[in-house]
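User: I'm curious whether this sequence folds into something compact or stays loose and floppy. Could you predict its structure so I can see for myself?
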Amino acid sequence: MRQLFFDAINPYTGRIHTLDDANLFFGADGLGYARDSWDEGFVPYVIPAHPSSPTNPPPSTRMTRQNYFPTRQADQAVWLENFRLKLVLHAVALGLAAPRVADIVADARWLVHLLVSWLGSVRSHGKAATSTLEQAMTGDGPLTLPVHTPPPLADGVVARPAGALSRIFDFIAEIKENDACTEAIQIELGILGSVEPPPDMPNVRPDITAILSAAGVQIGWGWQGLAKHLDQCEIQVDRADGKGWVVLTYDTTPGYLDTTPFPAALTKWKYRAIYRVDDHQVGLWSAEVSVNVGG
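Assistant: Here's the prediction. I'll summarize afterward.
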């Protein structure tokens, strides 16, 4: 049994305990407690009649977006150029202070210089250095160590303090809070990521494991890259006690330890899981896993 605290979550329903819960009671010490599935007098919570074929709710209306900043360096330079050019065009409509815009444009131009001219020069020097080292080790002829000369700054480009990209991101976060920054402007500036299609919800399925340890049964599970689309993982257990499948927990953090005391006799416990969104089961049940406990 568990001592109850204000707004305590019922691990068998995933919701706050209600006053009509048959498993709630006051102890001799005057404190509130809740029975667990292994306690005498525990009343199982209602499980759908046919949980092996859950009814999926209507598709979620959640819309997630990918990051607007590219991962490839070549694409980053293109993004920065577009952002600084379009920012100047929309600065008045967004009510942005000219000195602040000038600073952000300078940050963007400095980063473009580093990504295109300086980085390209460094890479060429690296190749020359490697070739010279090979000559020094196994070659012949006169040996001259290459000297790297950084490319000159283009007109209008000035060196900027460290953290230029962080300043740009902070600035973008500010202007996206601006009511005048419409979706059309965000698209032009390149600060609105493309819509990421949702997964095939009717077919999402957890992969789980069950490993016996001295502390209990460790149930392994994960989001399979779908964390942004899912809320919980419902884990059920069948302890071969005649109760059939009962809810063990509604978990939001991958990995769960079942600390239920082991029975005296050797018994097979079975586990299965299914994802949940907005208080509904979604997708398919995982394959069942089992462990022998007790004895």
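Summary: The chain has a mean pLDDT of 87. The radius of gyration is 30 Å.
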